[in-house]
Amino acid sequence: MEAEITKAIVETASEEWVEYAESDVIVVGAGPSGLTAAKYLAESGLKTLVLERRLSFGGGIGGGGMLFHKVVIEREAKDILDDFGIRYVEHRNFLVADSAEFMAKLATKAIDAGAKIIHGVSVEDVIFRDDPLGVRGVCIQWSAVEISGLHVDPLFLRSRAVVDATGHDAEVISVAARKMPLDITVTGERSAYSEVAEKEIVEKTGKVVKGLYAAGMAVAAVHNLPRMGPIFGGMLLSGKKVAEIIAENLKA
Amino acid sequence: MEAEITKAIVETASEEWVEYAESDVIVVGAGPSGLTAAKYLAESGLKTLVLERRLSFGGGIGGGGMLFHKVVIEREAKDILDDFGIRYVEHRNFLVADSAEFMAKLATKAIDAGAKIIHGVSVEDVIFRDDPLGVRGVCIQWSAVEISGLHVDPLFLRSRAVVDATGHDAEVISVAARKMPLDITVTGERSAYSEVAEKEIVEKTGKVVKGLYAAGMAVAAVHNLPRMGPIFGGMLLSGKKVAEIIAENLKA
Amino acid sequence: MEAEITKAIVETASEEWVEYAESDVIVVGAGPSGLTAAKYLAESGLKTLVLERRLSFGGGIGGGGMLFHKVVIEREAKDILDDFGIRYVEHRNFLVADSAEFMAKLATKAIDAGAKIIHGVSVEDVIFRDDPLGVRGVCIQWSAVEISGLHVDPLFLRSRAVVDATGHDAEVISVAARKMPLDITVTGERSAYSEVAEKEIVEKTGKVVKGLYAAGMAVAAVHNLPRMGPIFGGMLLSGKKVAEIIAENLKA
Amino acid sequence: MEAEITKAIVETASEEWVEYAESDVIVVGAGPSGLTAAKYLAESGLKTLVLERRLSFGGGIGGGGMLFHKVVIEREAKDILDDFGIRYVEHRNFLVADSAEFMAKLATKAIDAGAKIIHGVSVEDVIFRDDPLGVRGVCIQWSAVEISGLHVDPLFLRSRAVVDATGHDAEVISVAARKMPLDITVTGERSAYSEVAEKEIVEKTGKVVKGLYAAGMAVAAVHNLPRMGPIFGGMLLSGKKVAEIIAENLKA
Amino acid sequence: MEAEITKAIVETASEEWVEYAESDVIVVGAGPSGLTAAKYLAESGLKTLVLERRLSFGGGIGGGGMLFHKVVIEREAKDILDDFGIRYVEHRNFLVADSAEFMAKLATKAIDAGAKIIHGVSVEDVIFRDDPLGVRGVCIQWSAVEISGLHVDPLFLRSRAVVDATGHDAEVISVAARKMPLDITVTGERSAYSEVAEKEIVEKTGKVVKGLYAAGMAVAAVHNLPRMGPIFGGMLLSGKKVAEIIAENLKA
Amino acid sequence: MEAEITKAIVETASEEWVEYAESDVIVVGAGPSGLTAAKYLAESGLKTLVLERRLSFGGGIGGGGMLFHKVVIEREAKDILDDFGIRYVEHRNFLVADSAEFMAKLATKAIDAGAKIIHGVSVEDVIFRDDPLGVRGVCIQWSAVEISGLHVDPLFLRSRAVVDATGHDAEVISVAARKMPLDITVTGERSAYSEVAEKEIVEKTGKVVKGLYAAGMAVAAVHNLPRMGPIFGGMLLSGKKVAEIIAENLKA
Amino acid sequence: MEAEITKAIVETASEEWVEYAESDVIVVGAGPSGLTAAKYLAESGLKTLVLERRLSFGGGIGGGGMLFHKVVIEREAKDILDDFGIRYVEHRNFLVADSAEFMAKLATKAIDAGAKIIHGVSVEDVIFRDDPLGVRGVCIQWSAVEISGLHVDPLFLRSRAVVDATGHDAEVISVAARKMPLDITVTGERSAYSEVAEKEIVEKTGKVVKGLYAAGMAVAAVHNLPRMGPIFGGMLLSGKKVAEIIAENLKA
Amino acid sequence: MEAEITKAIVETASEEWVEYAESDVIVVGAGPSGLTAAKYLAESGLKTLVLERRLSFGGGIGGGGMLFHKVVIEREAKDILDDFGIRYVEHRNFLVADSAEFMAKLATKAIDAGAKIIHGVSVEDVIFRDDPLGVRGVCIQWSAVEISGLHVDPLFLRSRAVVDATGHDAEVISVAARKMPLDITVTGERSAYSEVAEKEIVEKTGKVVKGLYAAGMAVAAVHNLPRMGPIFGGMLLSGKKVAEIIAENLKA
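^ inputs. structure came back:
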């Protein structure tokens, strides 16, 4: 029986690795903006792969606000909550959701929409071309290898678009800014100013260079916007917006 | 705006902490057997709290088999997969599911059934009484405190039943075996023998002492059963079985 | 009984967190200048909250001078010692106090004056506004979370003034200098020159930008002053002076 | 000026080290039971030295209950709270105090009573004699040396009595049990059972062998009692009781 | 081009993983005895897989003797050196070879003989059956996962024989001794006694239980033999002997 | 017997250290380009020493591509594979080899050609002269000493040429760039662009300053070329080219 | 010039390694008892080698008593101090010496007497024979290798006697007790009782088994004697006594 | 007896700390140049204190050259070897000494000349004045405290001159360059060029700013000189020269 288990797992997983050696969109990071983007991207018919360094979903959601297990969402993002089937209570001007439910349903609905999520994979670099200059995919590594400090060569995945949804480190855009002939400086987020942050993060969501897009807190890092704390309306709206922009661009 | 976010989160979360200072069942561990148990417990009308040390769901699911992102389930557990809405393909004698979907939907359906899941909380000890001897709840601590090495007193949660779904360390039963006047030795799992393991883990699922139950790999640890690898039928069936036993016992 | 303990603690502590979501002054750091400031601020009627990253009082006092358990204070600060009820002996030109007593009574008298001290909380960022530019509060996190390396969102506390009493790293002002549109460089302290250090640290104590004040060694860090060693007159006088300036400003 | 600071500190601290090379009682640990014991010991006229490994007071108090900054005390210990000037509110059957105030005033009042507290010192062993068998003092080391891993010889302090108030590790009694010809096994605390724990910890407080006494959680470790969580009545009553027993014994 | 590289690597490697889900012999450890065994096993026509935890060959050979880059071999093993094409000089009673050449050619000749070596894979447990009791394969994990501390399920490989060539920890036999119903104690090696060690290690090489064999220093660990230092004749002779025994047994 | 082993090893190894205190070429790094260079250098009659920091061969080869145990080589390097006796299969446009065989045979053939490889030795600096400016050898240290953090003086080895084959850190050239009066900046590799990378790395292989040469990924680091992933044609061609250039230069 | 430095060092040091592959006595540990023993052994005409794991002399002397830079010696050991030229002052009943001078002169006089001291070498095991049972030398390793965690084979040194002067861990005797067929248990030291300790440590100094001797704190570990703190008379007298016993035995 | 040991040590050591709160010269670092300087400074009648971070002597001497236990000295420094009584053999153009003897006698003769050496003390900063600008002493801390990461205030020692003999990090000059208003950049040593290094290090030895002097490898760090490896003539000559310069300056 044991050999059959091994064969079943290796065969089905390897086939998918070969299949996803090329895709339409790679979303890096399975946090709130990444999962939101993945759902709407997949719904628009694009072959969408989400790569997550940890063996879990949700980015910073699981700790709620300073470990208090609730998150706050503005009314503007109410429709997205409804799309995902996430319940909430109204508290003064805000909607308050349970962090566990928020996290679980973001993932479930992205998967149901057709996005493929693979855990335990880090994006350590991008693939680029210069005619015209732009990103054409990513270099990946098992996060276990990264943590272990072993020296192992990465593999490559090609895609027409890459979304940096890695949060306030903007890991993908940072490596591209250092190692591609770009003119970008990732300056990092500013101190907290929630209203402004929530508004600007949605406005500035979008393309960084051909083939590379920023969503969620990565937008703050690239555009030096204020941070906003455990309020997630901006994340959801940014994820949805980046999906719409990419769908538009890739159809063009 | 920022002060309002803080108030909204602290108030709603604290109310729930007070509410869950007493519950029917505390499930320790949000892995496959714990989440399965939680769903069926909540559906049977019991006030069910799941405590998870990490800030995520799924226990060991996220890494699939040796990082290949698939898991195997036997046909016997097909109905449970269907209850959770988890898709699968048939591969020789097994069902093969995607580890990401498996993980996300176990959580989503447990929550939809009414179970409350709180992340970032470790169970470091149990509460006991000796008239009759048994477990009456748990001592909890932020896992962040545990990791940090700071010395901070725990808080207490009372419940009528505690399920150890912490996996092959059987953390709750181990601490009870060491620190309560019980006659249990947690011997740990044996080497791999998948057929036997899958069968016996379901058979031996159940009560350890009044108020304390074993599910999933914790059963293997307590009863010195073989391990079984990345095949999850036994986990699902064990989680469902422990829920049925507790529902029965608590109604009595 | 155990569930009652939990309810008592969660309810009383959470109420205070909600209450202190907004205050007059937040003092960051429960070392000598912070505790001195807190006492005189509270005495002047301001709602004063002290946040301390460790689970204890005293900053660097507890180690005395190179672990010799005594500290030295100049005669100029004799009145403050008397206000706090701290005993001393005269030794040549100085007053010498026991480090344990010095530490304990700074805390006791700040509390008796009405300051609220909360331990185990780190300030990781500030809240700011730009009309006019200034600090409006802080972003906080459990230090246990910080040490653990877990990624958890902070909460916010609003206040009319924030005092950086974090010592020679000037942690709050440093983060503001990096992440707010300010024109400050935190250059750090210089080598030792005790007489000059003690004098200038008091002179330079005060406002850094609207809403943000420096006290104690943070003043040396911001103004590139010499360090002074295990002599604490300047710390006490700086703490008292910042309290007087803030009381004056907030009444205005 | 700098050389004078050095001389003042070294001279005054060294004199006290020589003075306390011999004392009546050494209390190991400046947590709740140790500080309570120290106050009443000093008040009874005994030369009392408290040694604390950390550079601060309070043991586990500073983290309140799971970082919620409150502690619970039973009505039986109300008089001790009043002796120390610690304020409280009544909450159902309990008194609830602020953890910061509780910690600060335990230290302040012990010092005002005449106890000498020295920080940063670990007790790594005891001095013993066999005519009759018993403890005659302690071997001490800077905790900084311990943490650093450097190999440095300890120094010795003689005393007529040693109180192990180091908490649930019972560090002093553990080392004596291993390295003296005693017949004690330190079995550690049991799981939580608050009512029983609070009662028995006071009853079992007292002498372990000639010259060596247990107070606070060390009593639970030695007598295998249940733990009790963030409730401190037993700690205070145990500290007071051990002081009374020692005062009685040393007068004899 | 990058996607093609990925497909080429994943497809060819995965096919082999499926192919080696079942083999005749699994040799654990690519040190001197393991590589010697692998060469002679493969030459006898058995499907042979070597699993090595590190990303390299040679076990302890690379450091020579206390980093001096030479190793010593007795004349009895001269023929094996010649089989592998390893050069040597005569030095008093011994043959002295270069550690680099020794290491490289052991690997090269094992591969040329048809053995398949896969690096970066740890054996964390065995597969067993009880009719009759014996080992039927191994549970494997990426060593990177082991080092990283992530919790990931292993995969299984079936084989008719497993050789523990992991050196003085006898890792495979140790786990079997702990987790199978065997009657073996792994006592470890004794102090140095080179003549005796070299002789007995060859004599005691062989079967431990059905399906599990010891070679090289693992023999010393199981049979409590003396150690022998940087002399490798016994390792080579043990590796060859185990190959002959297995070839004999599997043909039977 | 034991003393004889020690004498045999110390005498033979020490003689070689004295012999290699001066050589023609020192290749730093026993990865793919270093071993290729070593083979062709030795074949051209130069006294060639390879120093490798680890106790093994192969650099990053052993992990294949993201632990899949295969590597890809372009057809242009087919002749080199044949020179080394490395087997391959054709897969679309590439040759695919087994990573274990690739690694073992690179080492074996370099040794057979006459190159001396010593493991466990780090190059921490170079020897230079300024008439004319150039490198004249290296400063070496046991890597064990480096890892241990002990402070030990290095030894020196003189040579007419030094090849930096240390991979993408270009360790030798980096230290020379920092510590010799050169005008080089080691800018590091760029993001992935495999075709360009493979081509340019061969073109730019060669002399950096008199006596110091770059091969393999060190070329990418010095000339800011793109990275290429688990494809090794460029490495082999670069190693062969640097050997030809040096043979030419040293004969001149 | 650099190549000459290397040759000079490698040649002179290697010759001595070969010379000391066999000696009369190996003293393990260059602390107070080891250096004292070495001086008197060398003076009696025996070929004496001292192996010290650190790169320095003195064992625990350098930290004085709890970092106070003085050590105490009893009048009984006055003659040994004089033999070594170590100055002291009289303080009540004791002699007090400077820890730096004590340490430096123990080493200088052992060397002047003819003992060879080699630093940076750990003894990880012994060589034994069983006709009759006894120790015949040691297995050595660079301590740098030990610290680094690399797996490297040791070398061997033969000698007629081995002195364990490694302090309270009795490292050599401990390994012999575990790995030779002896009947010794290393029980470790007891709590402090200085008078008894100083007296018994000298009395019990001597042979443990043929070829293996205990000196200094290793005697306390083997015979379960009390510890004595920063007083060194016993260490000196023990070192001298072991030298006398060995000189006697080896002449026999 | 134990209390007497404590009193003897604390009293004698503390008196010296008070005595050395002010001295003529503080030498930082007990390596070859520091100990040489200390001997000649003390011989010229100056009150000389050597502070050493470790609990031992010798800096990098103990490891010889790459752990080979010999060091090389040029003939120019022969007289200094004779002053210290260090034996040597002639080897081609060099003198070769044993590293253990070299280290021990440097310390012994510095002490005999009257220098006071205190171990376990780090210099973390300098004391300065600006009329005229210069160094007036040092801020010290137990190295154990530094390693432990505890936050403890330093003490101060005044002196007329401070010698940085800390080796290639030039620790004291580096901190002064950063934290005093000086115009020095510590550029670090260059690659190896032994002849030039040995010569220039002696030439550039001397004053850096009033009250602060460089000796040994610190000279290379300040003046960007080449390094020289395990050859110590320059160290000895530099130590002697700095002593002569300071003796001259302080008499002036």
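The CA atoms of residues 54 and 175 of chain H lie 19 Å apart. Chains H and B do not touch (no CB pair under 8 Å).
thumbs up if we can close this ticket
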